Each structure stands twice: as C-alpha cells, then as structure tokens.
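Methods — Computational structure assignment.
A single polypeptide chain was analysed. Its primary sequence is given first, followed by the predicted tertiary structure written as structure tokens.
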Amino acid sequence: MAIRTVTIVGVGLIGGSFALALRRAGFDGRIVGVSRPHTIETALDLGVIDAGAPLDEALAASDLVYLAQPILRILEQLPEVARLTRPGTLVTDAGSTKVAIVEAASRAFQGRERDFLGGHPMAGKEGRGVEIAEAELFRGAVYAVTPVAGLHDQDERVAAFLDWIRRIGAKPLAISPDEHDRVTALTSHVPQLVSTALAASVWEGLPSADRLEVAGGGLRDMTRLAGSSYAIWEGILRTNAGPIAEGLRRVAAELERMGVDPESPALESRFDVAQTLHKKLREP
C-alpha cells in the first residue's frame, strides 16, 4: 500500500520532526498538519507541512494519521479520530506510554482495531515546539511499535509505515504495550523523577543559593533532567503509575541499603553492578 497523504495531529517537536524526516527520506506525497493556528502558520513558514486543515477535513483524506500530541490529549481525542477516519486508514501515535493508549484505541476503533498501531519513537531533545523540529531527530533511534498479535500480521499498511520508519533512519522494534511501559518506567520515567527529587531536595536543603558555588559537575549532570516541566510529564506519570512506583521502590531500597552501613562489603557490590550498566550504555 502506498502512503500518499499523511496527517500529523500535533505539529510540535515530534510531529514536525516526523514530517521533516519524511521529506528528507524522499516522501513526495502531501503532509497536512492539524494544530493551533499559530503553530500551523509557523510550520508552513518553515516548510514542515504542505497545508493546515481542521481535524475532520484532514482525517477524511488521509492514508496515515500520526498523533503526536501529549498523552492525555491523545486519549481524549481517540474516539473522535476513530469516528472521522475512513476504514482502512492507518492511525498511529507517538505517545510515551502505550498500555493506556492501546486500550483506549481498542475501544475507540471497536470492529476495526487493525486501523490503529501504537508507536513511540525513542527520540527527543530539550524544549518543545515546531521551531526546534529537525529531520535527523529519529536517525539511529529505536522506534517502538506495539502491533496486536494476529491483527497486524501481513498488514500492508503497517509494512509501508515501518518501511518509512527505516528510511528516516530509525530502528523499528516490536514490543508489547505492557513490556514497553515497564521498561521505559525503569529507563526513562524513574530517572526523570530521581533527578527531579534530587534537585528539589538539594535546593531546599541549601543554607543559601550562594552555596551552589561549591557544587561540582556531578550535581549538574545528575540534575539535567530536572529542567523538564510537570506539564510535559503529567500524562506519563498518570498513565504509567504502577511501573513507575515499582521502579521508585527499587531505587529507594538501594538508597536505604547504601545509607545503613557505608562500610558494608555489600556496598562495593552495588558500585560494581552500577558500573556494569554504565559501561553497557556507552558501548558503541
């Protein structure tokens, strides 16, 4: 199946980057954006999209619909998207959690569940908005997809979409929604909360802000993620609460173990385990 018209709902960093990546990879079809008027105007000025349109008009003419809004907005809009898209249009999303979205899509697309494919590009950068979108954002990144077993087997639309994912330089990875959310809780969501907690505790524990002059580079490195806003993370925290809570319990247990007896031989083993992950993450 050829994809000739792509509608991107939410033309921000991810949606805008997907559009630019498609163009650079050779996509010569039509890319339509659905977003706030100012965002559409900016996206048109930057050459990110070919046109802007209302949701109903855009979806009616689409071969591929790419939902790139915040998670809670995706969940809110899925029933309307299902109603407005014609049967056979492939709808996918770029939400950072998958269980809640895939379950909501199953309800919204009841009777035509094959028309939805969950997805999550493991790529991004600090900041938000179409102004910082870039065509190379996905290059080298894993692109998680959550096909429903038996429904998406031999689906030409999914095959065509994954072909474009490869063309933009990403690496498709099929994974269940549950495993996706458990893994990303440990590798992404918990690190964010640990960084945020560390920054908040240090700031409130300092006798004065001037004493940051004695802070080393380690604090800067450890609190890099603390620059993220709650608005960006609210949807993730609300839709992946269970796995995140379990991950935080694991971290809390490690911290408690380290604080009980700094001379314990077991403490050295935790440094060894930590170094194993450190090295693994930095392998070429």
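Note: The chain has two domains: 5-175, 180-281.
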